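User: Sequence recovery, please. Input:
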C-alpha cells in the first residue's frame, strides 16, 4: 500500500515538474525580459552623437536610436525563430538559415532585383529576397529528403557548401553587370543605416511570429518525422511547406532591410532546447527574448569596441556563432 502511494506521489511530482518546466511566466523568464529591456535602454543611449548635449539631440534620438533598437529586437526574434523552426523540421540542431544556404539565396534574389530594377524600392528587394529564400530552402529540403545521410554533421556542411556556391554566383553576377557596390552592403549585415522610414517593414515579423505560434504544435509534430505526422492524420508536406514559407518571409525581410546576420538562428535555439526540450510552443517566447538580447549585446559591442567607429554586427555574430558551432559539434561527438 505504501509502495502504491509513493508511485502516485512520484507521478504527481513528475507532472508538477513538467507543468512548471513548460510554464511561461516563470521567474527566470521575467528576469530575461527585464535584462532585454535594460539592454534596449543601453542601446538607446549608446552612440557617438551626443543626443543630450546637442540642440537637435531628441530629434536624432527618435530618428536613429529608437528605430535601431526596435530593428534589433525584431531582427533578433526573426532569425532566432527561423533557426528554431528549421531545426525542428530537419531534426538537426546544426541547421539554421546560415548553414542551409537560405540567407545566400536571399542575397541572390537581391542581386537579380538590382539586375532588373537599377534603383529598386524596399518592397521590390523584399519580394526578391523572400521568393529566392523560399526556393533555396525548398531545394535544400528536397535534397535532404532524397539523400540518406549517416551523420547529422554532414547536413550543415552540405548547406554551407550550397550557400558558398550561391554566394559565388551572386558575386559573379554583380561583377559581370557592375553591381558590386549596390549589393556589397548586404554581405556585411549592419544596423548603422537603420533610421525612421527604412525599418518599418520589419514589423511584419510580428505577423510571422503569430502564424508560427498558431502552427507550433503541427511544426513540433513534423519534427518527429513524416511517418509519425502522417499516422496522426496530418499532411507532412503541407506543414513543411507552411514552415518554409514563414521562414523565408522572415529571412527575406531581414536580408532586404539589414543584410546577412550569420549564426544567430544557431546560437539561441540550441541554448533554449538544451534546457527546455523541443516543444516549439513553449520555447518560442524564450527564443524570441534571448534572440533580442543576443543581437543587442553584439550590436552594443560593435558600436563601442573601436569607438568612434563601428564594426558590422555580423562580424561579432559570426565570431560568437562559429565558437558555439564548434562547441555543439564537440558536444555531439562526446555524447556519441
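Assistant: Recovered sequence (336 residues):
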Amino acid at each position: 500500500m505504501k509502495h502504491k502511494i509513493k508511485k502516485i506521489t512520484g507521478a504527481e511530482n513528475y507532472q508538477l515538474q513538467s507543468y512548471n518546466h513548460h510554464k511561461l511566466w516563470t521567474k527566470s523568464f521575467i528576469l530575461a525580459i527585464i535584462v532585454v529591456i535594460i539592454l534596449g535602454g543601453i542601446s538607446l543611449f549608446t552612440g557617438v552623437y551626443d543626443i543630450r548635449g546637442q540642440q537637435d539631440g531628441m530629434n536624432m534620438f527618435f530618428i536613429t536610436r529608437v528605430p535601431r533598437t526596435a530593428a534589433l529586437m525584431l531582427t533578433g526574434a526573426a532569425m532566432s525563430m527561423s533557426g528554431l523552426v528549421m531545426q525542428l523540421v530537419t531534426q538537426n540542431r546544426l541547421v539554421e538559415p546560415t548553414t542551409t544556404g537560405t540567407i545566400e539565396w536571399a542575397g541572390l534574389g537581391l542581386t537579380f532585383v538590382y539586375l532588373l530594377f537599377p534603383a529598386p524600392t524596399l518592397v521590390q528587394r523584399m519580394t526578391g529576397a523572400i521568393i529566392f529564400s523560399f526556393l533555396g530552402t525548398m531545394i535544400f529540403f528536397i535534397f535532404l529528403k532524397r539523400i540518406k545521410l549517416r551523420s547529422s554533421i554532414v547536413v550543415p556542411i552540405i548547406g554551407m557548401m550550397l550557400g558558398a556556391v550561391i554566394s559565388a554566383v551572386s558575386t559573379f553576377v554583380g561583377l559581370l553587370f557592375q553591381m558590386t557596390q549596390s549589393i556589397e552592403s548586404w554581405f556585411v549585415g549592419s544596423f548603422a543605416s537603420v533610421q525612421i522610414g527604412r525599418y518599418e517593414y520589419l514589423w511584419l515579423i510580428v505577423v510571422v511570429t503569430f502564424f508560427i505560434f498558431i502552427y507550433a504544435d503541427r511544426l513540433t509534430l513534423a519534427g518527429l518525422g513524416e511517418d509519425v505526422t502522417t499516422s496522426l492524420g496530418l499532411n507532412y508536406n503541407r506543414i513543411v511547406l507552411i514552415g518554409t514559407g514563414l521562414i523565408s518571409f522572415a529571412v527575406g525581410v531581414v536580408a532586404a532591410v539589414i543584410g546577412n546576420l550569420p549564426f544567430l538562428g544557431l546560437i539561441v535555439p540550441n541554448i533554449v532546447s538544451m534546457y527546455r526540450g523541443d516543444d516549439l510552443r513553449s520555447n518560442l517566447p524564450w527564443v524570441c527574448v534571448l534572440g533580442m538580447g543576443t543581437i543587442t549585446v553584439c550590436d552594443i559591442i560593435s558600436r563601442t569596441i573601436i569607438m568612434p567607429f563601428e564594426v558590422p554586427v555580423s562580424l561579432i555574430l559570426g565570431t560568437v556563432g562559429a565558437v558555439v558551432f564548434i562547441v555543439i559539434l564537440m558536444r555531439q561527438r562526446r555524447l556519441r
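Residues 1-21 have pLDDT under 50 and may be disordered.
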